[in-house]
Amino acid sequence: MNERPLLMIPGPIEVSDAVVEAAAGPPPSHLAADLVADFAAALRDMRHVWLAGPDAQPFVVAGSGTLAMEMAATNLVDPGDVAVVVSTGWFSDRMAEMLRRRGAQVTEVRAPVGEVPPLERVAEAARGARALFATHVDTSTGVRVDPQALAAVAAEHGALSVFDGVCATAAERFEMAAWGADVYLSASQKAIGLPAGLALVVAGPRALAARQTLRTPPPLSLDFEQWLPVMRGYEAGTPTYFATPATTLVRPLRVALAEILAGAEPAAAMAARFALHARAAAGFRAAWEVLGLRLVPRTADVAAHTLSALYLPDGVDATLPGAIRERGVVVAGGLHPEIRARSFRVGHMGHVLNRPEALARTVAAVGGALADRGLQVDVEAAVAAASALWEAPLQGTTVGGRGSAEAP
Ligand SMILES: *Cc1c(COP(=O)(O)O)cnc(C)c1O
What we know:
By secondary structure, this protein is an alpha/beta fold. The chain is about 40% helix and about 15% strand. Strands 2-10-9-8-5-3-4 form a 7-stranded mixed sheet, with helices on both faces. Strands 11-12-15-14 form a 4-stranded antiparallel sheet, with helices on one face. It has a two-stranded parallel sheet with strand order 1-13. The longest helix is centred in the last third of the chain and has 26 residues, at about 265-290. Bound molecules: pyridoxal-5'-phosphate. Pyridoxal-5'-phosphate binds near residues 11, 135, 138 and 167.
């Protein structure tokens, strides 16, 4: 097989040809007219993909998802403030560490690997908190929280709600305005479908106001207040300089967001997008069941649609991803320290979901590698079980109601 290997890790992901094309060519100036137009369109489309209100402010800053997390931690919380972290894996732990370094009093509400802590425990911890942080999909466990319920709990206690959507944005249902979430942060290289390099943060009006009342300003390069005039300038066609944006990634960002929103008004386009990911995940779950693989998330309702975190079967060691790679598909090893040597992860998000043959190739590569290890697996049946779901019509075409755009 001399085909390029298929990249099925939880980021970076396969991107569309249009995105590859948009990333090519000489680097534009940060003040070039084309760049300014692309930047303005991208900022407007971020509000649509985030399902955020017109009063929400998108920030596009050179950096990775980790930088986006740090922006949220340092713009909203003062040293000494109480911050609650809903902990569902390794990335939630990273958020907690950032907040501790900021000097916050951090309460982590934890759950065993594969589970989500009960809402009542989060509500208890949220009393008196300045902000509540949660990881929409924790990429180390494949666990998804319910941001709508968490945003409501935070609001009830007068706390800001912040969601790390790095492995979820543009794939898992999130309605920033309708749910009253204050910050939804992300990065370019996961479900949004770009190369790595952009930290993407949307802050609602309460979050912007919270920055203004901080006693201890954030590091200059992360400061909402420094970036606000820059973002507003790009959107108004009057660019200004604070720190050089990743100019080669701005056009690809515009193209990727436009692809996500194509063909329908934003609410319908996003509902279809969420349904596409839910259907893909359901297909993979069906395949894993046939192959005898067990998901790390304990129940289907907390299993992410963007990746499958899977336990290695008995007698199969952590070299399995290497064997899958030999079959032309790149998957990821375990990440969470408790299950690192006992698990592996398959990403399924973004543009590749429109290519059922690539998804089938992924199942066949995993199944084939298991068969090579001497397991009795029916690879054809696994592909067939998944394909039956991938060929089914998308479920749900609206956002705004609970349970819409979900997989069967
Ligand atoms: C990947 C990821 C991050 C970190 O993003 P980087 O771009 O690698 O810094 C943070 N949170 C979640 C949930 C992620 O999946």
